[in-house]
Amino acid sequence: MNKKQKVLIITIVLLGYFIILVDTSLVFTCSKEISQSFQMNTNLSAWISNSYALTFGSLLLLGGKLGDAYGRKKIFMLGLVLFGISSGMVGFAPNAILLIIFRAIQGIGAAIIAPATLAIIMDNFMGQERIAAISIYGTMSGIGVSVGLIIGAGITTILSWRWGFLVNLPIVAILLILTAKFLPTNKFTTEKLDIFGSIISCLALIFIINGISGIGSHAFSIVIGILLLGYFIFYEKRISHPILPLTLFSDKKRNLAYLICFAYSGAITSFWFFTPLLLQTEFKMTPLIVGVSFLPMTIANFISATMVDYFTKKLGSIKLLFIGLIITTIGFSSLTLFKSGLTYMLFIALPMIIIGLGQGLILSPVTSIAVMNTPQDLTGVSSSVINVMLQIGGAFGLSIVTVLSHTTEDVLAFHYRAVGFSILSIIALLFSGYLLIMILKKKKNVVNKKV
């Protein structure tokens, strides 16, 4: 494979991953416009994001298995087609319920595309080239949402929120042509797929989230969700090819890493969703200016992310994760001080910078901890579970914060929401503190035994 072919492959992969990131961040800046179009309340508007995150997160493992079973190229193209068609349906959605359903279908497409992109890199690059490609991919993951936020906000401001979704159609068409022509076909297995388990887990999560901030009887929805989740665990124990091997949860450090991801994602997703609403209502910013206003956080995130390798060598992943969560918790807590009439620079932009600095120190260490001491045959699944926790944790957190801030006064609502961000971040910090204490005790015991 020559250099030109490799450049084309990485371009296809990054563009495929980028449209997912843009679609995620687009909702953060145009949720107000969408809500106004369909006269949606806060609870219902949260499902614009939640429906996407739930299907995306709960079907990620199945999406990865599909690539193993039927070939990356074929499945990547299938995901693109599904994502493109559903993007068009969202863009033309005539009412709120259909929009939410189409967003859920988009999440299914994203769940197929996302694991395929990283797997394609692993299939086609080796040695230093693979390290470089993964590094570029990781950078895209870190700052892609922020860049996508600005691009999506620009489209929303100049045209409308509908065009933010419709623009995916020509991009998907180009990607399909490039993929068909330039992406090599990899070998694939005849591994059995746990489709039933994937569907049950997805339904369980949907019912539980709906029970927190959805329609109908909340108690009934939560009970059904918990029963389905219990059945999913029972089912996964009994079958020989589970979508989620339960042996993965036999390690305490790994479990704590998953819990940290879950809680932190709830905080950061809620922050991303509700802060643009405040900027639009309190500061009268257009979606484009809202996107630009997040640049301080993006820059801070990028700077701290570039220092992760250096600090990991000096402190280790667990200490660095703990420090990163302390910083982000300070940033989230600072947002609770905001009141009507206060300045953007001091009470919004400064906390954003603090949050960005902390965020850059979190994702890489927590991922390393999650895959540490994982059996070789479960490394890929363990890495995928981190992404599952990020998506599902975001949906849970957003639902909880939505319930906490059920008020009509915008600034007071944001105060309650900021309290919600902070509590979720503190929970993640406590888990990381427990992990740090556990490791320090273990080291102390080792030293005492040597003495």
Structural class: mainly alpha
Integer tally of domains: 3
Span between termini: 56 Å
Coarse morphology: globular
Instruction: Report the sheet-strand fraction.
Output: under 5%
Question: Can you count the beta strands?
Answer: 0
- CATH topology (level 3) name of the largest domain: Growth Hormone, Chain: A
The CATH C-level class name of the largest domain: Mainly Alpha
Question: What is the name of the CATH superfamily of the largest domain?
Answer: MFS general substrate transporter like domains
Number of helices: 19
Order of helices and strands: HHHHHHHHHHHHHHHHHHH
Q: Which regions have little confidence, pLDDT < 50, spanning 5+ residues?
A: none
Q: What level of helicity do the residues show?
A: over 70%
Return the average pLDDT rounded to an integer.
Answer: 83
Largest sheet: none
Cα-based radius of gyration, to the nearest Å: 21 Å
What is the CATH architecture descriptor of the largest domain?
Up-down Bundle
